[in-house]
Design goal:
Layout (H helix, E strand, L loop, with lengths): L5 H26 L4 H32 L11 H11 L1
Helix pairs in contact: 1-2, 2-3
Amino acid sequence: MVSHSIDAQKKILNRLRRASGQLNAVIAAVESGAACRDVVIQLAAVRSALDKAGFTIISTAMKDCLAEPDGENGESTTPEQVEKLFLMLS
């Protein structure tokens, strides 16, 4: 990621850590025989956290692509590649 996206990277890592904690809670709930409703609510929270992390990554990639079309280390990301990544999440 480009240097101006350090804040985005922190947000992404926070979301992923939150999702990881929520997934551990889902696993524990299933292992302990928790109610289906509780498991599904936690699972939805995990999915939401992962979706938000993914969309933040795509958003950052779009901004980076516009700011540095040739990429930081010579690798370019085309708008078509960003679109394909976005569609994978939707």
